Amino acid sequence: MSLSQHGSSISAVEVTNISAHGVWLLAHGKELFMSYDDFPWFRDQSVKSIINVEEPSPGHFYWPDIDVDVTEEIIENPEKFPLKAKSK
Asked: What confidence score (pLDDT) does residue 11 get?
């Protein structure tokens, strides 16, 4: 008995690129970009922490190592969700 078809992805979300400008996610066949300007929590994190992403519910992404969670809507429309917390 096989639990998944050969070639099927078992991960609904994955980090596909980390650049000097931000982080790229692939979720359900859709590419999402999080710039460091809009998502500064990722800027100085280790690769290991950034690629450790979970999807507790569809369209809701969580990074347990850095205790950050965002939704697909926030990633696609960061201007609608201005940052509330400021770094000290």
From this structure: 59
